[in-house]
TrEMBL record, chain A:
Keyword Cell membrane: no
GO biological process: bacterial-type flagellum assembly
Occurrences of domain Flagellar basal-body/hook protein C-terminal (ranges): 427-465
Family in the record: Belongs to the flagella basal body rod proteins family.
Cell compartment(s), UniProt: Bacterial flagellum; Secreted
Protein name: Flagellar hook-associated protein 1
Automatic annotation (TrEMBL), chain B:
SUPFAM superfamilies (UniProt xref): Phase 1 flagellin
Protein's recorded name: Flagellar hook-associated protein 3 FlgL
Ranges for domain Flagellin C-terminal: 234-305
Keyword Ribosomal protein recorded: no
This protein's UniProt keywords: Bacterial flagellum, Cell projection, Cilium, Flagellum
InterPro entries the record matches: Flagell_FlgL, Flagellin, Flagellin_C, Flagellin_N
Length: 472, 313
């Protein structure tokens, strides 16, 4: 008699557990990284009745598992790293673009235009200091603009270093969290069952990590979980090897190292993007990062000042002074320090307009100075050649193309991630409709099992209370 | 494919975001009237704009230079015109004397006085200024050309001609060195209008007047006065020649100015074509983007709302 009771109770319990699983799924519908769970149900071992066959003994939930496609995870983590890299590059390059201020009224071109406009204007009246004043003012504005861009580039570079430090901290913190989760999961899973929700948490951490740095993940058959960066373990089961940022003394170079001092081989990820921006000077096939633009700006400031000074030295000021520099700068960091020479700042008469001493209206040297702007050999060494305008244009074009590329890469990477995410949601996401249908299903099963108990109860009532009066 | 609620929500959010992005970009374009705001929006377009803007800045400055040069030349021409008038008057007076219409000593004295006045006037004109610059003094515009006694005040090289830029490697010679008009050399020799002048030399033109004045004072040697007529005529011809030269340059400048105007127009047009949005087109695009955005909102509201939850009691 109890046989039937047991079967019914098993059904009751199975439905109840399935309802709990449904409940858990619905509760976590908006949990990041949550994977829907499913109870695995099977019939319990049947009871052999000789001469009759096997009598079913009911049902059981023997496992609760996550519904997840590990291939999609693998894909997601792989594509997340390039996205992080290009996102960092895109953000910083667009900032540099704003620094150069093209197209706008605060661009290099505008300052250069104004300076040469003032020079040209002065050439129509070189004897009048009210025509000389604008030359000095506009030249000063031009050099100040170069200074400011140089300083802001420097700041931007420092900021990327701070970002890198933050990222390194994040990597280490995530690595430690993964290691402690590994320990927990490993000890829970000794029983043979999967620690679903802890695994979700671990996967989420890996996902977060995969944006910062390129990671690969391996889980051994005995359940030991390893996260590595380009083949070197970051987390090996419960052991963590931390990474660190090392500043090379007496230089502004930095390295990202393992604890033992060997270089971390970064292939992609936000950290790689930041490192490229921090140290890429565009030479030897490296990325055109911030140093590239700093170098170009220095090259421009130095080249412009030298060329202009050379011609200016040939001329004579209103007082007959000659061999005067127009610009001055510190050769260590030309762009940050370029300004007007003391002579020009002190006395407007020192602007060397003339070719001969003492003549007020002599503007021949000034005309040659103005002519420099059209000089196709103004910049004749180095990476880009041509007039000062050509030089600026080539910087801006490089920047534009790089920035556009980073944006495109980011967008396509983002799109790819979005597709994988959709697929993952399709597999692992919770669907209300589904859960509701399940709920109804399990509720009915539960009710049916309860009804069965009721039925058995009636049978027993009949058997015990109503059959004859023997023993009463 | 299995579709879950979060997929729908994520998709909707993503699409809304994309639509908003398009809308934002279009609205920025409409608000600024420009196709791009950072170089990466259109690298080639931006580098073109860079050039066009510089071209316009240069052309505008060239135009200003041309205008400045023109006003300088207008003043030069006025001065030359006045010199011409003086020479004409002196010529008339001298003719009167030569004809014998003015014979009485007091008449001659009057003529002499007028000639002296005219001479003074000549010196004044030689020192004409244009915004405080002596126009005939070559590079030494801070110094007058002539001293009060009529001699040259400065050393003046005939190549002291300054040029203004009125185009890329296109210049115009602006000033006329005084020697071209006043000349140098002894009154009895042929005037020299092309060689360098040194300080304290007496200009030929002044010398002619001085000789005339002296002659009128001392008596009247008709021969000398006859000769003076010829000299005055020659001087006048020289002035006219210089004037014609200035006039020709002014004509050229006028043409140049017109050409620069046309160029500015052209470049502006190119610039506008390169970076300005077509307002009509952009308005239509915005209207379309708005429609798309609104319908995606509507669809989203419909899609997200119902699940089985609403229908179970």
């Amino acid at each position: 008699m109890h046989f039937g009771f047991n079967t019914a109770v098993k059904g009751l319990l199975a439905s109840q557990r399935s309802l709990y699983i449904t409940n858990h799924n619905i509760s976590n519908v908006n949990t990041r990284g949550y994977t829907r769970q499913e109870g695995a149900q099977r019939a319990t071992t049947p009871y052999a009745l000789p001469g009759i066959g096997f009598l079913g003994t009911g049902t059981e939930i023997y496992d609760v598992s996550r519904i997840r496609d590990s291939y999609l995870d693998f894909k997601y983590w792989n594509e997340n790293a390039p996205m992080g890299e290009w996102e960092a590059k895109m953000n910083h390059l667009s900032e540099i673009e704003k620094l150069f201020g093209e197209p706008s009224d605060t661009s290099f071109r505008k300052y250069l235009d104004d300076f040469f406009k003032a020079l040209t204007n002065m050439s129509t009246n070189p004897s009048d200091s009210s025509y000389r004043e604008p030359v000095r003012e506009n030249a000063l504005a031009f050099t100040k603009h170069i200074n400011e861009v140089a300083v802001r580039l420097n700041e931007l570079r420092r900021e990327t270093k701070v970002s890198m430090e933050n990222n390194i901290e994040r990597i280490n913190s995530i690595a430690n969290q993964i290691a402690s989760l590994n320990r927990q999961i490993y000890s829970y899973e000794i029983s043979g069952y999967k620690a679903n929700d802890l695994r979700d948490r671990r996967d989420l951490l890996v996902e977060e990590l995969s944006k910062v740095v390129n990671v690969s993940v391996h889980e051994s058959d005995d359940g030991k979980f390893r996260v590595s960066i380009s083949g070197v373990s970051l987390v090996d089961h419960i052991n963590v090897s931390e990474v660190k940022l090392k500043t090379i003394p007496n230089s502004d170079e930095i390295r990202i190292e393992w604890g033992n001092g060997s270089l971390v081989n970064l292939k992609s990820g936000e950290l790689k993007g930041l490192l490229d921006l921090y140290s890429g000077d565009g030479e030897n096939n490296t990325y055109r990062g911030i140093p590239y633009y700093q170098n170009r700006l220095n090259e421009f400031a130095e080249g412009f000042a030298n060329k202009f000074n050379k011609k200016h030295n040939e001329g004579y000021g209103l007082n007959g002074n000659t061999n005067i520099d127009f610009f001055k700068f510190d050769a260590e960091k030309p762009a940050a320090t370029i300004t007007l020479s003391d002579e020009i700042l002190e006395d407007l008469k020192n602007i060397a307009a003339g070719k001969a001493p003492g003549d007020a209206e002599d503007n021949r040297n000034l005309l040659e100075l103005i002519g420099l702007r059209e000089d196709r050999k103004f910049f004749s060494e180095g990476t880009s050649q041509g007039t000062p305008d050509d030089f600026i244009k080539s910087i801006v074009s490089n920047l534009a193309v790089d920035s556009m590329q980073s944006e495109r890469m980011y967008n396509s990477q983002n799109m790819m991630l979005k597709n994988i995410q959709t697929k993952r949601d399709s597999v692992s996401g919770v669907s209300y409709d589904e859960e509701m249908a399940n709920m109804v299903k399990f509720q009915h099963a539960y009710m049916a099992s309860a009804r069965m108990i009721n039925t058995l109860d009636i049978i027993m009532d009949v058997t015990i209370n109503r059959l004859g009066l023997v023993g009463r | 494919m299995r579709i879950t609620n979060n997929m729908l929500i994520n998709n909707m959010v993503y699409n809304l975001n994309q639509n908003l992005k398009t809308l934002e970009k279009l609205q920025y374009q409409k608000a600024t009237g420009k196709k791009f705001r950072v170089p990466s929006d259109d690298p080639i377009g931006v580098s073109k704009s860079l050039k066009f803007n510089t071209d316009i800045a240069k052309l505008e400055q060239y135009k200003r230079n041309a205008e400045d040069a023109t006003s300088w030349m207008v003043d030069t021409e006025l001065a030359l015109g006045e010199i011409g008038e003086i020479l004409k008057r002196a010529y008339e007076l001298t003719i009167d004397v030569a004809n014998g219409t003015k014979k009485a000593p007091e008449d001659l004295q009057k003529v002499k006085e007028e000639i002296d006045q005219l001479r003074e006037h000549l010196i004044q004109i030689g020192n004409t200024t244009y915004s405080d610059r002596h126009i005939f003094s070559g590079f030494k515009t801070d110094k007058p050309l002539l001293k009060e006694d009529g001699t040259y005040n400065i050393d003046l090289n005939m190549d002291e001609i300054f040029e203004y830029n009125v185009g890329i490697s296109e210049t115009v010679k602006v000033n006329t060195p005084g020697g071209k008009v006043f000349g140098r050399g002894d009154v009895n020799s042929t005037p020299d209008y092309n060689s360098n002048i040194s300080e304290n030399e007496k200009p030929y033109l002044i010398a002619v007047f001085d000789a005339l004045s002296e002659e009128l004072d001392s008596g009247q040697n008709l021969d000398v006065i006859q000769e003076t007529i010829g000299k005055l005529q020659n001087c006048h011809e020289q002035v006219l020649a210089v004037r014609a030269e200035v006039g020709a340059k002014m004509n050229r400048l006028e043409i140049t100015e017109k050409r620069i105007d046309a160029q500015i127009g052209n470049v502006n047009e190119l610039l506008s074509f390169n970076e300005d949005v077509d307002i009509a087109e952009i308005s239509i695009q915005i209207a379309m983007a708005e429609n798309v955005y609104i319908s995606s909102l509507m669809v989203g509201a419909k899609i997200i709302q119902p699940t089985l939850v609403q229908f179970l009691t």
